Amino acid sequence: MIKSKALRASAKGEECTLNIAGVCNYNSETVILAHLPDESHGMSRKSDDISACFACDNCHSVIDGRVTFDMSKAEKEWYMRRGQTRTLRKFIEKGLVTVKGAA
Predict the structure, then answer these.
(1) CA distances from 70 to 29, 50, 62, 76, 102 (A)
(2) DSSP state, 35?
């Protein structure tokens, strides 16, 4: 399991990378590192910290199913993967994750 205090802490003060239209509160004070479903998660176990995104409270609640929002499974998947990619780019910009050979 990939677990990193630095990755989790990096969400503080960041913008929401999910930005679900009609849901996002655009409040960086509510943003946390939200874990997204993948093969590394299971019963009572979160996904790896690299399978995550920066999420405001509103978007996180929709992705986790605590709040219902009219969105197809495909739309939900699109928002999650977009958020994960945006967050990975932030990790790289902050020097928290490196990509060998990247320019």
Answers:
(1) 26, 27, 10, 10, 39
(2) E
Residue 84: what residue type? Answer: Q
Catalytic residues: 35
Gap between the Cα atoms of 82 and 47, Å rounded = 17
Query: Residues near 3 by Cβ (< 8 Å), separated by ≥ 6?
Result: 48, 49
Q: What is the pTM of this model?
A: 0.90
- Tell me the per-residue pLDDT of 3-17, one tens digit each, with 9 for 90 and over: 899 999 999 999 999
Please tell me the distance from the alpha carbon of residue 2 to that of residue 48, in angstroms, as a whole number.
5
Contact indicator for 40, 51 with CB cutoff of 8 Å: yes
The closest alpha carbon to 48, from 34, 67, 66, 59, belongs to 34
**CB of 32 within 8 A of CB of 16?**
no
